[in-house]
Design a protein that fits this description.
Layout lengths: L2 E6 L5 E7 L8 E5 L7 H12 L3 E5 L15 H15 L7 H15 L3 E6 L1 H12 L5 E5 L7 H4 L8 E5 L7 H10 L4 E5 L15 H18 L2
Parallel strand pairs: 3-4, 3-5, 5-6, 7-8
Antiparallel strand pairs: 1-2, 2-4
Amino acid sequence: MGQFIQLSSADGFSVPAYVAEPQGKPRGAVVVVQEIFGVNSHIRGVADRFAAEGYLAVAPATFERVKPGVDLGYLDADMQAGFALKTAVTELPGAGVLQDIQAAIDHAARASGGKVGIVGFCWGGLLTWQAACTLKGLSAAVPYYGGGITAPEEVARQPQCPVMAHFGDQDHWIPMEGIEVFKKAHPEVQVHVYAANHGFNCDQRGSYNEAAATKARERTLAFFAEKLA
């Protein structure tokens, strides 16, 4: 089990982050970027599982600038609340929430003494891609079904670290046509597509797909083991 700490962003904003520490010396660190539901029990569980694999895991609260303490479930009302908060974050001026993710990367590097990877889900997948393209200190990035990642302005970005991306072929938020465009534009990215829907990694959602989640996790762990060594 981890605990929340406070990080300080470049503009002085204080952002909470859930930190899960491994037993013994960390083999590196992983920043875990939330969905539109906050640093909820699922995201904390993801961080805990990375810690169990030997990584220091840091999950910043990327809604904090618009609403503190967000911890939503997966009902329709939660979805609507999460979308509204995501919209509010995207309208923030300047660097917005990316500076909070940078603070998490910096803390992860200092606290682990090793290389830092980043993984994110849904909206967090998009932020993970943006982080890979614009932030400093990352050695690997793994976006899961990043909503918006296939938009032209996102496809036009260039990652500054190795990237592995996971998608589902039944994801109505991210059609296969967009995934194919992304793959063609970024042959350097390892793209994996599963027979699954949006949110297939989350065991609290109706779209959870155990086979896809297990395979994606195996690939992600192998990717981090190579890039964060």
